[in-house]
Amino acid sequence: MEFIVVIPARYASSRLPGKPLADICGKPMIEHVYEKACLSGASKVVIATDHQKVYDIVKGFTDDVIMTRDDHQSGTERLAEVVDLLNLPNETIIVNVQGDEPLLAPENVSQVAQLITDDDAPMATLSVAIECDDEVFNPNAVKVISDINKNALYFSRASIPFDRSSMLEKKSQLDLSQFQRHVGIYAYRAGFIKQYIALSISPLEVLESLEQLRVLYHGYKIKIEQAKIAPHAGVDTPEDLEKVINYIKSL
Predict the structure, then answer these.
(1) Is 249 part of any domain?
(2) Which residues of 129-162 are buried (b: 16+ CB within 10 A; e: fewer)?
């Protein structure tokens, strides 16, 4: 298995400006993510940024950094530019790792890469078991259901699957065994990234505000299985950043 990791590092963030450079125990956040990704077995780890300051800081610990445009509407568009800039062959497997996950589990990166390597699907991702009723009904927790062959059937902010017995009979507790939460890590074949951005926007992705539904809507497969290691939450706010700092200090 051979794959590369691309880490988008967008500078702007409404809740945490300059997020990739946020200091975590003496290192910028993006360096923590890079170091974890390098432990995944990837043949190359590339950071893609839209800001000169991030580029300059990253050059201090790796030469594998590229500048991308700052007008992309999604992370997938930025990934497509990376594919072009690096002139990657269509069959190259790319794992897209978010730049705000300093506690990234390298094992999950290699797992999603292996999942797409073992199949002809153009895309793969991971999930985790849902362990509390509140998460089932939380629209910020994206639920996913899959078939017996590890193909995603649907992603939703709603409580899928609908536990008819528990919900209609208003039982005090749901049977959580069938509920899975989507984890936002993706593996792609490079050629499919270009196909994806050329696909028409689907009404489902607009309704749910979930980009991956465009793939299913147009009839492509997304492989999915439960992550080997339950991932830590990413960093979206100053409060999240403080939690990560305290966690790393406690190790």
Answers:
(1) no
(2) ebeeeebbeeeebbbbbbeeebebebbbbebbee
Q: How many residues does the chain have?
A: 251
CB atoms within 10 A of CB 32: 21
Q: What domain range includes position 183?
A: 4-232
CATH code at 59?
A: 3.90.550.10
Instruction: Tell which residue, 121, 128, 117, 129, has the closest CA to residue 149.
Output: 121
Q: Name residues whose C-beta falls within 8 Å of residue 185's C-beta, 6 or more positions apart in sequence.
A: 95, 96, 97, 98, 108, 109, 112, 125, 126, 231
Q: Indicate whether 245 belongs to any domain.
A: no
Number of other CB atoms surrounding residue 223 within 10 Å: 22
How many domains does the chain fold into?
1
pTM score: 0.92
Residue 149 lies in a domain: yes
234-251 confidence digits (pLDDT tens)? 898 999 999 999 999 998
Q: Report residue 174 as tokens.
A: 């749901």
Q: Is residue 152 assigned to a domain?
A: yes
Q: What is the pLDDT of residues 123-170, one digit of tens each?
A: 999 999 999 989 999 998 999 999 999 999 999 999 999 888 777 666
User: What type of residue sits at position 73?
Assistant: Q
